[in-house]
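Priority: low. Protein: CARDB domain-containing protein. Input follows.
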Amino acid sequence: MPSKYRRGVCCIRGPAYLLGLILCFAVVPFSSAQMLGFSTELLTLPSAETGNSSTAGWATHLPLVSTAGSTGLAPLCRFGVNAISTDTGIDLSQLRIGWYQNYTTALHPSRPNGAEFAQTIRLSQTGPTSYRYRPGRAEIIQIANTNPGSMWLIGNEPDRRYYQDDIEPHVYAAVYHELYNLIKQADPTAIILAGSIVQATEIRIRYLNMVLNSYRQAYGHPMPVDAWSIHGFILNEVSCDKNPDPDHLGCSGADIPPGIDDAVGLVLDPIDTPPHDWVDRNDDFEIFVENIVRFRKWMAQNGYRDTPLFLSEYGVLIPSTLYRQFTPDRVNSFMNRTFDYLLTAADPMIGLPSDGNRLVQRLSWYSTTDQQYNGYLFTREGQLSPMGENYRAYTAKIQGYTDFSVTSIRTDPPMLLAESGPVTVTLQVTIGNSGNLLNPSRGVARIFNGNPQNNGIQIGSDRPVALAGCGQTQSIEVVWENVEPDNYELYVVIEPEAGTQDTDNTNNISSIQLFPVTSQTWLPTVHR
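Result:
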């Protein structure tokens, strides 16, 4: 919840002066995603409205629940909302959300229309290397035991001084290590999310680099992360303690991350004179895209390309009561444009392979009812606001679909030693579903020695597949005994169950070569 945007004063008078007490904004030094060196493409997906196409991922364990709520439409795994902990009397199921959070934990969370609840553990630093978290260990264990497969956000904006969790990088690494192991011991199927930074700007990437370095130095291995979480705001980055030009630079906004001594990060309109362009860019689509691409690039560079990315909080914060241009129509335009982008933006170099190389697997819009800021979806009386009506109309048009794919095939050993005689080969296969449904789609995976369309012989038995969309994955392992040194082409085929329509059958079959060698210098064989 962005209570963080309340410190500092911008050089503004009149109604905008009050806004200056809330937030200032930052701009990144690029004009497009292509300037980051990537060619991001937009996928074409089925549309319920047209039946053809529109520009309308992730390993977890999702509950099997009823597929219809108050709208009669199945929940969509990609869509979520940021709720307020005091919300009562609002019907989230009509939005078709697949998940939500309210910045707390819950032993028995509400699950409107089967939507998942993301548990959030709040953090605080108490000394140079010490910390606290809430709730405590016993309650976390109880919640994890009671809610297997839940998502766990470790902290909320640890990079935001004063008003959010305010944790130095080395301390975040330590508390993350403790909580990751605590939760996984209680529930090995839990999904642990790291990050939740305010925005994916360069200075905040530095903060996360410091986290990763601290973790590796302390524990001797890379930080384990089931999914990364970021927020998608566009805010000023100026130190309130070291502001070099307080007459012109407002320090309200995102501030500088703890553990970094810079006076400024990225600043929009540094002169801060009328017409106050920094305010107008709170919904700047190009900046929004640049930050998403930057973070996915960082993930790939640090070994997390196969890790899902959640945009776990974003929206338009500028209230129309302070800046009249931010009308419901303008907010809805930003909502629609970002929804279109987040559903379809993909990159074959940095996107998630199990989700059609999409950059982002899930989104969450701020907020349900917080009328201090813009973008709220419900009135205090529980009725849909104009933004809520737009959200509902957008998701109502989306056709639910399944898209199974063979994400990877591995063999152990990766090659056969020609003079070794018969050996046992373990086949390891990863299946993905880049569809958009929260509830699992089902099918069967089979492995063949040779092309199954040309008398290939099945290895092992049928393996059931049950996967939600958004890039959820399932691993399959088959042991193949008494394998003679020879040349083999191994095929994996996924067959959806009757009644499940797979939108792309071309990625339901894949193959890998296994052949003998005369040297024991082996390299891993991976198919993707």
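Residues 1-39, 47-69 have pLDDT under 50 and may be disordered. The chain has two domains: 15-396, 404-527.
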